[in-house]
Amino acid sequence: MAMATISSTLLFFLFWLHVIMTACEDSFGPDFGASKICISSMNYTANSTFNTNLHTLLSTLTSHTEINYGFYNFSHGQNSDKVYAIGLCRGDLKVDECRSCLNSSQANLRQLCPNQKEAISWEEKCMLRYSNRPIFHTMDTSPPYYMHNTYNATDVDEFNKVLGGLLRNLREKAAGGDSRRKYATDTAIVANFQPINGLMQCTPDLSRQDCGDCLDWSISTLPKFAKDKVGALVLLPSCNLRFEIYEFYNSTAILDPPLPPALPPAPLSLHQEDHGNSLRTAIIIVVPTVIVVLVLLIVIGRYLRRKARQNLLAEDDGDDDEIGMVESLQFNLNTIQVATSNFSDSNKLGEGGFGSVYQGKLSNGQVIAVKRLSTNSGQGDLEFKNEVLLLAKLQHRNLVRLLGFSLQGREKLLVYEFVPNKSLDYFIFDPTEKAQLDWDTRYKIIIGIARGLLYLHQDSRLRIIHRDLKASNILLDKEMIPKISDFGIARLMTAGQTQENTSRVVGTFGYMAPEYIMQGQFSVKSDVFSFGVLVLEIVSGQKNHGVRDEKNGEGLLSFVWRNWREGTVTNIMDPTLNNSSLDEMIRCIGIGLLCVEEDLNNRPTMANVALMLNSCSITLPVPKKPAFFIDSATGSLPNMSSEDSWATKGTQSSGISAQESVNGASITELYPR
Q: In what ranges is there compositional bias, type Polar residues (predicted)?
């Protein structure tokens, strides 16, 4: 009788397990299709050298028969026509199956992204990406791709607890892989005997730390889009994560052959035994000594690194000794003087409240931009220290690159890459120049700025709040790729820190978030606010402080909100643009309005913004009334009393910035280039 009861229970369990598995496979099965993203920051022509190099590289990627572990990373070409490609197969695939998947991906990717210099394809069992920039040994978390099962867990708390333990274990296993494979799978059992199958994988060229960071980023996104779901998938260029309540992977082939057995030691003579005893004695003495010394060195090294990190986080002015952290970037003053013809007026690009900027040319022919801080600036030391210590650690194609600095006597110089196309405000607000910015170019600029901010807020090792994002601080290179510049007032946030307060509010009016102006509170969401203003300026071609209505003094945010509510969004768009991409422009206006909402908790993160920009299938939330909205009935800012608006006293009418714009020496505000 007992056996019959057990058998009935088992059959009942198996039946429902089959039902659940079938339902899950219907909603998000193992064959989830493919996702391809054309990252169209730059295009190439059909008869170009780049196209030839790309075709050669992709068509021969899997021809390297010595590779049997599913990871291909090769490049082809020279200089600006060089192409980099990465192919990664799921760790359980056999060699032939892996090559077949990658060959199919490259054919589809070339067809769907016919002229983009950067693209990525995710199939169920493999990933293929190529780029015109170096992508090896680099952790990239953008663009992301997400999917989730439509079914929720029954016992949510228990399921999430078991899932959390499974993901932590998989992260450690995957990150601990070697240079051929960073891949891990495992199964955990929930209390109701329901299995959770998990998989994590990184491109093996990543370091253990970078792989772990990438997987941590993937795990952190799960509560946002797959909360309490029984299955989810996160695909990033450098890593991926998946879990299901059914098995979706096979057993993994072992790469390394077993080691040959050790040979037995040869018999020792009496003399050899004596010598061996002496050797053993020496080893017993030396080895512990070496271990102790190594441990001490490691402890001292960690202490020094932690101390240097603490010094970097300190906000006091400090001494110039901190510059020793980046001594390798230091230029000799004579080198800069020669490059700029001793800072001649003919090489001056412009000047601001904290110095001048000069164009120069190094002996190797490289063109540079040199920011020379004014010697009588009371805040110059702080700005100089910030830019050197922050920019030296930041590397991203959408950030202006710091080449070095010079610190000699009273001379403080910052050496940047030279960006030839001036700044965004030079184009977007000029009636003649704005004609060069068609919608495709503007959309690429918006996406590039979003990527740069996402890197600062989330993807870099340091969390940076820029605090002065504006059109004049966006440089455009020769291909109109945007680069965020001027980190003079940027702030570094410690791990886990979400916001900070300051008694010194600095920045540019019109771009500063309300909580920052009125309470001195800044966070990543204050940068999001500035980004939203910038997006609306790019779409409309109008300055945020431009007057739309002489009677009511209507600003850009009020103008956009009024037309958005009245359904006359075409009034917002720059008249120089055609309506061929109307849906895309309307979507950008909606994203901009979400970013400038008064309540910072309602604003999206830059990760969400990047996702909304890259995926038109995501439905946008309904925007709420923006901050600084002028009520036409009262002609006032209803959410700001005169007592709270202390930062406007004496400076707002100038339209420049609080504290007289501490970044007046920004190289992005200078003409001509």
A: 639-666
